[in-house]
Specification:
By secondary structure, the protein is an alpha/beta fold. It has helices at 25-36, 48-60, 75-89, 112-140, 161-181, 199-204, 217-231, 240-251, 269-272; strands at residues 16-20, 40-45, 64-69, 94-97, 143-148, 186-193, 262-265. It has two domains: 7-196 and 240-267, Rossmann fold (3-Layer(aba) Sandwich); 198-237, no CATH class. The chain has a seven-stranded parallel sheet, sandwiched between helices. Helix 4 (112-140) links the parallel strand 4 and strand 5.
């Protein structure tokens, strides 16, 4: 299923969408769908080469895209980047706060720098980008901000204290900004994805490497398939497009009366309350 089976062509013609962490994974999937629906997508990442390559691929597929380098932890840099995007494109209709830095680590040995890094990328970055784009959206008569959260903090998740704390903060921030900025016709919502087979997720399912460092890809796929059948009611992992379709819905006129919502897109995983991971 592609976005064109769900949404009309040209849904976002003339609109500009800024996507942090847009060079790969969920962010890239969001960019692909929005571009296919007519938006000019601006991909933001710390690595200029990554977003430039992704933007070139989107253009080759017939979409409109460009890339910018920014570290969302740096407030002044974020402000300059937002100003540059507005100056170049005249507007920013949609901001997707997708940049994240997550990894598994025992809480008892989590270093101050590791804790700080994830909190700053996930939570600080979401706030800095949202705060910087507000004047742009206010001046143009409104806009949409969509934050990418997660479901892990709904039940607690060992080895992810830093990410769980940051994403819980994003949920609270989403609701607060939705109330504050509704008067400016800026809608603020969040999407909480379940397991999406990005590189980080695949690594978590990888068996120990062999003596030569090789990973048994077939064993990894079997482990992921087993997890999906046992733990996810809809019996499959999600895809970046599953999340992208929810972004498109919330950003479209169909979502015009939705703000402050946390939309869970996880195949029912968190409701099933799976046992603690090993």
């Amino acid at each position: 299923m592609t976005s064109h089976n769900v949404f009309r062509d040209g849904l976002f013609d003339g609109q500009v969408a800024l996507i942090t962490g847009g060079g790969s994974g969920i962010g890239r999937g969001i960019a692909d769908v929005l571009a296919s629906l007519g938006a000019h997508v601006v991909l933001a990442s710390r690595k200029q080469e990554r977003v430039e390559q992704a933007a070139a691929e989107i253009r080759a597929a017939g979409g409109r895209a460009s890339g910018v380098a920014v570290d969302v932890r740096e407030q002044e840099r974020v402000q300059r980047t937002i100003a540059d995007v507005q100056r170049e494109h005249g507007r920013i209709d949609l901001l997707v706060n997708n940049a994240a830095g997550n990894f598994y680590a025992p809480s008892e040995s989590l270093s101050a720098n590791a804790w700080k890094s994830v909190i700053e990328i996930d939570l600080y970055g979401t706030f800095f980008c949202s705060q910087a784009v507000l004047p742009v959206m206010r001046a143009q008569g409104g806009g949409v901000i969509i934050n990418i959260s997660m479901t892990l903090h709904y039940r607690g998740w060992p080895l992810m204290a830093h990410a769980s704390a940051a994403k819980a903060g994003i949920d609270a921030l989403t609701r607060t900004l939705a109330l504050e900025w509704a008067r400016d016709r800026v809608r603020v919502n969040a999407i909480a994805p379940g397991p999406i087979p990005t590189e980080g997720v695949k690594k978590a399912f990888a068996p120990p490497p062999s003596a030569d460092g090789a990973v048994d890809v077939f064993a990894q796929e079997r482990a992921m398939d087993d997890y999906a059948k046992r733990m996810i009611p809809l019996r499959r992992f999600g895809s970046p497009e599953d999340i992208a379709n929810m972004v498109a819905y919330l950003a479209s006129p169909a979502g015009a009366w939705i703000t402050g919502a946390i939309m869970v897109v996880d195949g029912g995983e968190w409701l099933a309350k799976p046992p603690l991971p090993k």
